[in-house]
Amino acid sequence: MAEPVHSLFDRTAETYDRARRRLIPCFDELYRAAVEALPFSRDDDIEVLDLGAGTGLLSAFVAYAYPRARITMVDAAEQMLVQARERFALGGERFRFEIADYGEGRITGRYDAILSALSLNHLPDEKKRMIMEQSYAALTSGGIFVNADRVLAETPELENRLHQAWIRRARELGVNEHDLRQALQRMELDCAATVGDQLEWLRAAGFREVGLWYRNLIFAVYSGMK
Ligand SMILES: C[S@@+](CC[C@H](N)C(=O)[O-])C[C@H]1O[C@@H](n2cnc3c(N)ncnc32)[C@H](O)[C@@H]1O
User: Fold this and answer.
1) Are 208 and 144 in contact (CB under 8 A)?
2) Closest atom of ligand 1 relative to the 58 alpha carbon
3) Which residues form the pocket of ligand 1, taking CB atoms under 6 Å from any ligand atom?
4) Distance from Cα 129 to the centre of ligand 1, integer Å
């Protein structure tokens, strides 16, 4: 049986953060767009769920922008959440951590924002749709779903060219070849989908104000509101 994707992340958790800015040449803009998509005021008491939170990178951007937000981080890779716990060690009860496979369980609880970064692309399409439907049910009225993810190009040729352009940029930024190899190995397990399909699935799940916030090479940020 193929190794589950979270065990690959478990094995590379300690060095995960080091490589991110080079592996994601648009790192700051991607995460910034995901936070900018949130329609709340800085001092709102919002309840946030981060699916596939990993070491807590996206949650850290959210926590900084929304100092009163309570954030639940879910991940199937225990070692990734160990890093996240360290990152938020001084944050107290604002931050919760849950080891779980979000592709299997149900989203319980009520949230104002359900977010994910570079994680849902690991799910087969029917499960991505299931997550969108569950998110819609778990969101409060006026709540938002935001996904910052690796996306598939519209044609195979375009996919190949964008993929090569991404590798070129990562190398220009000085990515360590070992980190690049590990990322490429993890990407073999990706089930990325096109932006067009994902926006359509959000609409079908009931979301409104569905749209794209950002796109760069193989990365995009999109959202939908309840
Ligand atoms: C590329 S990392 C992204 C982590 C973080 N969101 C970030 O932006 O750096 C993907 C994370 O998704 C987690 N993941 C993948 N599939 C999952 C699933 N079905 N359930 C829970 N976590 C999952 C992996 O364990 C990994 O920590």
Assistant:
1) no
2) 8
3) 5-6, 9, 52-54, 57-58, 74-77, 80, 101-103, 117-119, 122
4) 17
pLDDT (tens place) for every residue of the chain, 226 residues total: 456 777 777 777 777 777 888 999 999 999 999 999 999 999 999 999 999 999 999 999 999 999 999 999 999 999 999 999 999 999 989 999 999 999 997 899 999 999 999 999 999 999 999 999 999 999 999 999 999 999 999 999 999 999 999 999 999 999 999 999 989 988 888 999 999 999 999 999 999 999 999 999 999 999 999 9
Q: Which two tokens stand for residue 142?
A: 């006026």
The Cβ-side half-sphere exposure at 81, using a 13 Å CA radius, reads 19
CATH homologous superfamily of 5-225: Vaccinia Virus protein VP39 (3.40.50.150)
Among 79, 121, 65, 75, smallest CA distance to 99 is for 75
Query: Up-side HSE of residue 134: CA atoms within 13 Å toward CB?
Result: 18
Looking at ligand 1, which atom is closest to the CA of residue 102? Answer: 20
Cross-strand bridge partners of residue 141: none
Tokens 């779903």 sit on residue: 145
Helix ranges (DSSP H) in the chain:
5-12, 16-23, 27-36, 57-65, 78-87, 125-138, 156-172, 177-187, 195-204
**Domain residue spans in the chain?**
5-225
